[in-house]
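Hi there,

I know you've been waiting on this one. I reran it after we fixed the sequence typo, so this is the corrected version. Both the input and the resulting structure follow.
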Amino acid sequence: MLSVTPIPALSDNYIWLLRQDTSQEVCVVDPGEALPVIEFLERESLSLGTVLITHHHPDHTDGLGELIKRYAPRVIGPANPSIEGIDERVGDGDEIRVMGRLFEVIETPGHTLDHISYFTPGIPPLLFCGDTLFCAGCGRLFEGTPEQMHKALTRFADLPEDTFVFAAHEYTLANLRFAREGRY
């Protein structure tokens, strides 16, 4: 069975750790820092086999170099040459196998132009959406357009209703305060 564990990082980031109960090898998503990942892996006697990257922002990639040096994982991410360390560049519609599950890559520009998300339709369906979708909100537009973000969110709306969504930040209370204030 696949489990997903949050590793808190920086001020409000989540690095998601995927683990099959039959293996000590794990996958992490968007390691903005290496130390919390290394500490977790050592404490649990785990090894890092795969890293998934959603986009180029440092709070999602800054731990990558140190993790590559220490563990030499397979690194999968968007086709953006500015992200050092990716050895498998993927785009919309590509499929990858991670932790025994098939994941579909969904291009989700808006927050950044290179943003991708990872979806697996297994039981339960899982979505790792980086900075595209949050509880009570969506990502800020840095490079993309409102139309691009809308299209990305519409694609998520087509996913199964029981999909578990794993966003890369904990913004729930801030998003709810923003909505309550009604200043859009």
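Quick highlight: The longest helix spans residues 146-157.

Best,
R. S.
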